[in-house]
Amino acid sequence: MNRGATIRNGRNPGERPTPARGPSGITNTAPPDRVTNMQIEVSVGGWEHECCGAAISRTDIVTWQVFRHRGELIETHHGLELATVTISGFVVDVRARFNDNEVIEIDRLPSAAALSGNDEHDDGVLVTAWTEIALERRTEEFLVRLEVADDTVLPLSDVRHIHL
User: Fold this and answer.
1) pLDDT per position in the chain (164 positions), as tens?
2) H or E segment at 13?
3) Which domain holds residue 128?
4) Cα–Cα distance for residue pair 43/58, rounded to 1 Å
5) Domain-embedded: residue 28
6) SS3 63
7) How many separate domains does the chain show?
């Protein structure tokens, strides 16, 4: 490596990273050439996605407002007066969650317009991941697994008195 060259995280070669504290208070002491991440699950759907939600696919990079309700992280994009936190992450997978609690990994979550049949370029069909088989069942609830930086701040306590 040339003198003065930098690696992708902006440090000079051989320079040790400053230990970072994650949400649990545990110090991240990863080597400087290794980026560490954690995975979280965020609930997306219901009336918010049905109204105007964007399509979400595996490998997308997203930035969302989230809050915690009944122990679950929930995405919101309607400016609700809640204690939200902004997170950014890489979409690892998308799953459809049905009323009987069955969860099926899908290729992508179509946009609100596509799901309602109002997108001439997208039929809004839910397709299973890897097999490309169209699901006959419909749902409005989805789970998105994100890979986020270890030091991502997450809401610690539930929002109270909310009607979703």
Assistant:
1) 333 333 333 434 444 334 333 333 334 444 445 556 899 999 998 888 888 889 999 999 999 999 998 889 999 988 777 778 999 999 999 999 999 989 999 999 999 999 888 999 989 999 999 998 999 988 999 999 999 999 998 987 776 655 54
2) none
3) 42-149
4) 15
5) no
6) strand
7) 1
Q: State the Cα–Cα distance between residues 13 and 32, nearest whole angstrom.
A: 9
117 CB-side CA count, 13 A: 1
Residues 109, 111: Cα–Cα separation, whole Å:
7
- Residue 16 falls inside a structural domain: no
Residue 87, domain member (yes or no)? yes
- Stated pTM of the model: 0.74
Asked if 32 and 10 count as a contact pair (C-beta separation under 8 A), the reply is: no
Cβ neighbors of 38 (< 8 A, separation 6 or more) are 22, 147, 148, 149, 150, 152
